[in-house]
Specification:
By secondary structure, the protein is mostly helical. 80% of the residues lie in helices and 0% in strands. Helix 4 runs parallel beside helix 6 (106-124).
């Protein structure tokens, strides 16, 4: 199989995963979890930590963005810095959105999240620097898109009938769970990418992988725009 064919194989695989995930998981909450959340009264730290972690591990839009963020980061300090910026942004809007009942159209915010994946793919292959004549601030972009990712989840939680009894503690617990899930998922992603980097094929396949990342982001965005138009 030629390098070009491998690139297209990777692109097709990520596109199919993204399409399936956007329908089933992206910012979604299972019916059983929704029933539990709506029936809960009082502080429930453990269950909400679990639900938050479960959301992140199954949130393919989050994971695709994180893959793009860490793709060319080789130092753990850099990984920690960028992931912390994303986590900070995610936490701010998740907590603020739910507690203040600030609501945005979920299709619009999820489309922006899809575009965040597109943005990072373009950034990784150097197109943003070519288009703008200089490198946009990646740290600022990761933080701002983190705000969007947190707001996306907040819009879903706002659709539930959440009890006011213990609400603040439960939402904080949920957010802690999200960050735990992010840490676990990121660990697995780092192991996989680190092993890939040690192969001779990495330099040849890196460009194609990021083109595939752009395609996955476009698929996520189109899916949400379709939902917006037909809602």
């Amino acid at each position: 199989m030629t390098v070009l064919n491998r690139h297209w194989s990777v692109a097709l695989g990520l596109l199919l995963v993204a399409l399936a995930a956007s329908a089933a998981f992206a910012h979604g909450v299972a019916d059983s979890d929704q029933a539990f959340v709506e029936s809960t009264s009082g502080l429930q730290v453990g269950p909400f930590v679990y639900l938050g972690a479960k959301h992140m591990v199954t949130g393919y839009d989050h994971l695709l963005f994180l893959v793009g963020v860490i793709f060319f980061l080789f130092r753990l300090r850099e990984v920690a810095t960028y992931v912390s910026l994303f986590a900070l942004g995610h936490s701010i809007t998740l907590l603020f959105g739910v507690l203040s009942q600030t609501h945005v159209n979920p299709f619009i915010i999820d489309a922006i999240i899809g575009l965040s994946v597109v943005y990072k793919g373009f950034d990784n292959i150097g197109l943003l620097k070519r288009w703008f004549g200089r490198q946009p601030s990646t740290k600022l972009a990761v933080f701002l898109f983190g705000l969007c990712h947190g707001l996306g989840l907040a819009t879903k939680l706002q659709d539930f009938h959440l009890s006011q009894d213990g609400l603040v503690g439960n939402i904080i617990s949920f957010n802690v769970g999200v960050e735990i899930g992010q840490f676990l998922a990121l660990g697995a992603i780092l192991i996989a990418i680190s092993a890939w980097r040690k192969t001779a094929a990495f330099q040849r396949q890196a460009f194609g992988a990021n083109v595939a990342l752009v395609g996955a982001g476009v698929a996520l965005t189109v899916y949400q725009v379709y939902g917006l138009v037909n809602s």
